Amino acid sequence: MPPGSGLTALPAGGDGPRHPNYFLLGFVGALGVLTAWLLVEALIGVRAVLVYILVALFLAVGLNPVIEGLRDRARMPRWGAVLTVCLAMVLFAAVFVWAIAPPLTEQAASFAANLPDTVDSLRRTPFFADLERRYDVLDRIEGLVTAPDFGQQVFGGLVGVGQVVFNTLFATSTVFILTLFFMASLPGILDVSYRFVPRSNRDGVRRIGDEIVRRIGAFIAGQLVVAAFGGVVAFFFLWAVGSAYALTLALVVAVTALIPLVGTTIGALAASAAVALGSPLLGLVTLVFFLVYQQIESYVISPRVMRHAVDVAPTANITAALVGGTLMGLVGALLAIPTVAALTIILKQVVFPRLERR
């Protein structure tokens, strides 16, 4: 080959097969695995924050129809409607705490005051006397209380309870503040999200996105209506049977009714147990009443309220709530049904029409 031609002479044997650089492949693969592992660890570390953001965004989208209704009917600016909704939420939380804190304090004080008499009456019963003779229950309890590390154990338990209370208050305040910001800036968030879609498809995506937002808002509104109706029914029944804590138990029933699938049952058991402390017969009557009402709510009230909220089959609702509850607990159960409703809209308006055109 002439010199200066710019070409490099090939080996005598020709090109031949080139072997890959296994060291480079292994290094790149290990680097990819390490990067994926670091990303997973980072997501696990900020999991709580992501859950807070997801719940706050869900609440903001769900409360958006209320804000729009206040803007249209009361001629409020958006900031005024957002402030009104936030004040209503704070007022409800204050009423709930005001209604539930004094009875709990009173019951705890009464239990502590009556504990010696209760123990003495138990010791006089044949069953407890036989239990004491066989297993020395009181001696074991006395030994536990007089143990040197009893104070440390009690203090550690109180610290644990205090930490749980602090974490709950922190999570609640964080979600509330994030919800406030999301409610105020939701139109801007949606507009920015739609701008990531090419202009040719933007109108269709906007239509589907607005429909998803409307469905989520309708779902939350429906849940609130069902819960409020259950709380009102519970209040009138508990007031009729003479319960001293009718308002408190009615609020508990209403709040727990927001939990999909098991919420009404939890509220019914709590109310029945509270009534049974004063009268076991009335507690049984209360349990029977709530079981009957639960059937009416499940098959009459809730289907009528939710008919136009989430157009999802009941089987899909139950499956979604179970899967969501298994993956993310209570938060997953709350978010599962609106998520399935959103997927249903995408399937009906995007996936199925494209499959039909093929």
TrEMBL record:
Keywords: Cell membrane, Membrane, Transmembrane, Transmembrane helix, Transport
Subcellular location as annotated: Cell membrane
Keyword Transcription regulation: no
Pfam families: AI-2E_transport
Domain of life, per lineage: Bacteria
Membrane protein topology class: Multi-pass membrane protein
Residue stretches spanning the membrane: 21-40, 46-67, 79-101, 175-197, 218-238, 244-262, 274-296, 316-347
InterPro entries found in the cross-reference section: AI-2E-like
Statement: the UniProt record of this protein carries the keyword Transmembrane: yes
Family: Belongs to the autoinducer-2 exporter (AI-2E) (TC 2.A.86) family.
Listed name of the protein: AI-2E family transporter
Source organism of this protein record: Streptomonospora nanhaiensis
